[in-house]
Design brief:
Multidrug-efflux Transporter 1 Regulator Bmrr, Chain A, 300 residues, TATA-Binding Protein, 13 strands, alpha+beta
């Protein structure tokens, strides 16, 4: 009799547990990981192309990309280890932030064993989703990740500059630019002034009309009258964005374009033209990969 009571008691507990589990445990489990990206949504969407995303995951051989849709900011990551497809969504919260959602939804099931298995495996999915989140945050939640450089807030150090400019019918070479710089240096010294900065260069190219405008300038401590060849420029003592670039002319051009994006993405206003400061004498260093350039962008 005692055995029967024990048996029926265990059976009742088992049945009740089964019923409660059937009713309480979800028929369809969704495992999600979220994060907020505190960067302009335009910058994020601009970096959602297949090449950029594939590069991000190249060191994780068990995670591959599929169904990339940069227009809707959605894509999927295939987890070869757990054989799961995670849906990635980037939802615009406001101009300066987006919500990152990484999710996997199990197929609907009414089996309590399947429900328990899904819940148990859900912890593994969370860990895998956190790996994906970390990869995406490193790229999309940092200035360096989005623009490929460190952008520093700086201020104008000098306010007197003398400049020289020339319009070429061909794209000026390094030698052509340094001829302008050398002529400017000679003029400043002849006028009794001191050179207070490395040469600054601004280029504006009109390939269609074959007009290539170049202006060079240097900070100084003298005031001159403007002439057809030399011009006095004054800088407002305001704010600057600054970035240091190591590499040749094409790399500098690419990073200047990224700095343009940064200004537009953050709704900044520029009161003057951006410029590049040559920290390396390019005539003395033949290896363009070793050229060091600082690019500046005046802002309010």
């Amino acid at each position: 009799m005692t055995f029967k009571k024990y048996f029926y008691g265990v059976l009742i507990i088992f049945v009740l547990g089964w019923v409660v589990g059937y009713l309480i445990l979800p028929n369809q489990l969704k495992v999600s990981t979220v994060a907020i990206l505190k960067t302009p949504h335009q910058a994020i969407k601009r970096n959602l192309d297949s090449v950029t995303l594939t590069t991000l995951f190249k060191n994780n051989k068990d995670l591959t990309l599929t169904n990339i849709n940069p227009f809707s900011a959605n894509f999927e990551v295939i987890d070869l280890t757990l054989n799961k497809n995670y849906k990635i969504k980037l939802i615009e919260l406001n101009q300066d932030s987006m919500l990152l959602v990484i999710s996997y939804t199990y197929p609907k099931t009414y089996s309590i064993l399947s429900k328990i298995r899904n819940i148990t495996q859900g912890n593994q999915l969370k860990k895998r989703q956190n790996i994906i989140k970390s990869i995406l945050l490193n790229k999309y939640n940092s200035i360096f990740g989005l623009y490929g450089m460190t952008i520093i807030n700086d201020s104008v150090k000098h306010y007197l500059y003398i400049s020289s400019r020339k319009t070429f019918k061909f794209q000026p070479s390094t030698r052509d630019i340094y001829h302008l710089i050398s002529t400017l240096e000679t003029f400043i010294k002849k006028e009794g002034g001191n050179i207070l900065s490395p040469p600054m260069v601004y280029n504006q190219n009109d390939y269609k009309n074959k007009q290539f405008f170049t202006m060079v300038a240097m900070a100084t401590d003298i005031v001159i009258r403007n002439s057809p060849q030399f011009y006095l420029k004054t800088m407002v003592r305001g704010k600057l964005l600054k970035a240091k670039i190591v590499g040749g002319g094409f790399k500098v051009w690419e990073q200047q374009k990224q700095l343009d994006y940064f200004v537009k993405d953050n709704n900044l206003i520029s009161p003057a033209i951006p410029f590049a400061m040559f920290l390396t004498n390019r005539m003395e260093q033949p290896d363009s990969n070793k050229w060091v350039t600082e690019i500046y962008y005046p802002i309010y």
